[in-house]
Amino acid sequence: MMFNIPYDRSIRITSAKKHRPGAKNKKRYFIVHDTASSASTINNAKFLAYNQSSWASAHILVGPDHIWELASDDTVTHHAGKGYFDGRRDDMNRFAIGMEVHSNDANKPWFTYYQLERGTKIIVEKMRLYEIPGNQVIRHSDYSSTGKTDIRDSYFKPQFKSWKEYQDYLQRVAHGGGNFDKVEARRKKEEKKPDPKPVKPQPQKIDHTAETVLIEKYKKQVTDITKDRDHRKAEAEKWKKKAETKTPEKLPYPVVELGKTGGVVLKSS
């Protein structure tokens, strides 16, 4: 069964690529790597395919949402390096398909569901095509004698507790009639992640100190104005009553009147 993997073949390893043996690949193993590179996926693809100063190359590169096929399965690429596995020493490149999975963090690599799902289907497809058993699908670290640590556990966890469990799963799916339910469960789990609980709006605490001070100030002003108005009104009433009495209040100064002849007459109060 073919899965119609959407390979992008626009970037291919050139014949001038350094250390590209002309021998045909035996395709008895499948080695999984991760790039641990801060470069973009497409720049990693170009580096693996075109860089003349580097030996590194691979057959397939799986990005977070894109897949490049850099070389045909029959091509010998330089991805394994020095190491030992299953009686083979330092010559795994001639016997294995190499798949790089892009990760942009060397210390804490992370991978998307797409990478696990597509990567698993690519591996299963190659296992069926070339009759590769599950225990011959290995990590670079299973072979390397130079301290390689890829591919890291975050590629297959938490769906699989160990690489051995992932190998057994691949064997069942490729050669035992198994299905992709366990891999797809990761997607379903991610899709069903509950939305974060809405944060209840907290009542805004307003400092009324300044307003209170102003209000009290205005109240005092109004009170003072009212008192002054009442005082003025009382004084006016007092003087009105005095004016209405028959005996006018004795004035402290003489009253000046004009005489009949035009002279000035001083009268005592």
What does this structure look like?
The chain is α/β, with parallel strands linked by helices and 269 residues long. The protein has a domain at 7-191: Peptidoglycan recognition protein-like (Lysozyme-like, 3-Layer(aba) Sandwich), CATH 3.40.80.10. The chain is built from 6 helices and 10 strands; from the N terminus they run ββαβββββαβααααββ. It has helices at residues 41-50, 113-130, 140-143, 163-175, 181-191, 209-244, and strands at residues 7-8, 29-34, 60-62, 67-69, 84-85, 88-89, 96-101, 137-139, 255-258, 264-267. It has a 6-stranded mixed beta sheet, with helices on both faces. A hairpin with a 4-residue loop joins β3 (60-62) and β4 (67-69). α2 crosses α4 and α2 (113-130) packs antiparallel against α5.
Question: Alpha-carbon distance between the termini?
Answer: 135 Å
* CATH architectural grouping of the domain at 7-191: 3-Layer(aba) Sandwich
- State the CATH class of the domain at 7-191: Alpha Beta
> What helical percentage do the residues reach?
25-40%
CATH topology assignment of the domain at 7-191: Lysozyme-like
Rounded to the nearest angstrom, the radius of gyration is 48 Å
Mean pLDDT figure = 83
For the report, how would you describe the main beta sheet? 6 strands, mixed
| Count of alpha/pi helices | 6
In N-to-C order, the SSE pattern is EEHEEEEEHEHHHHEE
